[in-house]
Amino acid sequence: HLLEARQLVNSAVLMTDCLEVKASSTLRRLEVNEILETLEEPELDSSAGLMRLYTRAVEDDAKGYVTLKSSVGTVYVVDYDPLLPLESKVAEHRQDLVASIA
Question: Is the pLDDT of residue 97 over 80?
Answer without folding.
Answer: yes
